[in-house]
Structures are given as structure tokens and as C-alpha cells.
Amino acid sequence: MGKVSPATPPWLYTAGLNMGAGLLNSAIIALSTAAGVCVISGCAAYTLARLDLPRPGLFILYLLAVSSLPIQLFLEPAGTAVAATPSSRVSPPTGRSSARPA
């Protein structure tokens, strides 16, 4: 293990890990993600505001209702469809070994 000089803050050197680089990488990812979300959300909001919908209140209610549901609720029908395919059905075991006797 390397020596820690007294000038090195303890949160920058922990058991050989470079915590400063990790914190910098995390900050870069967090800030770029937040900026990307703001740009994409702003473009979507502008587009939705410019649409001339016949019943805009119903559309907004739909968006709010769908966004409040958990993502697992939307994944369940996909899992059910995969489970219903013929290739996913497995025949029950017969109790006999498929290996030939020697």
C-alpha cells in the first residue's frame, strides 16, 4: 500500500482507491444526465404546447396517469407473451434417464 502524506485529505485516499477521480466521474455523469433530461424535456414540452388538441385536458390526464404507474406494470404483458410461446413450454420429466446403459 502507498504512503499517505499528511497533506492528503482522507476522503481522497482510501485503501488505494482514488476517491477524487470517482467523485469527478460521478459529477460528470450526473450533470450531463441532468442537462440531457432538461433539453429533451424542454423540446417535448414545447412540442406538446404547440399541438392543437381537441380535448387537451384529457391528454394531460392521460400523461399524468401513465407516468404515475410503475414500469413493471408495462413489462408484465411482455413476459406473459413470452411464456405463452410454444418454444417456452417444457415437457414434464418422465422419470427415465436419457443416457444409454454402458
> Percent of residues in beta strands?
under 5%
Order of strands across the widest beta sheet?
1-2
How many strand segments? 2
The gross shape turns out to be flat
- What series of H and E elements makes up the topology? EEHHH
Low-confidence stretches: none
Q: How many domains in all?
A: 1
Radius of gyration, taken over Cα atoms and rounded to an integer in Å? 28 Å
**Content-based structural category:** mainly alpha
Average pLDDT, to the nearest integer? 76
Contiguous helical run count: 3
User: What percent of the residues sit in helical stretches (DSSP H or I)?
Assistant: 55-70%
Q: Please outline the major beta sheet.
A: 2 strands, antiparallel
Question: How far is the N terminus from the C terminus?
Answer: 58 Å
Membrane topology: Multi-pass membrane protein
Region (Disordered): 81-102
Biased composition (Polar residues): 85-102
Keywords: Membrane, Transmembrane, Transmembrane helix
What does this structure look like?
- The protein has 102 residues and is mainly α.
- It has one domain.
- The chain is built from 3 helices and 2 strands; from the N terminus they run ββααα.
- A two-stranded antiparallel ribbon has the order 1-2.
- It is flat, with a radius of gyration of 28 Å.
- It starts with 12 loop residues before the first strand and ends in a 19-residue tail after the last helix.
- The model has no long low-confidence stretch (mean pLDDT 76).
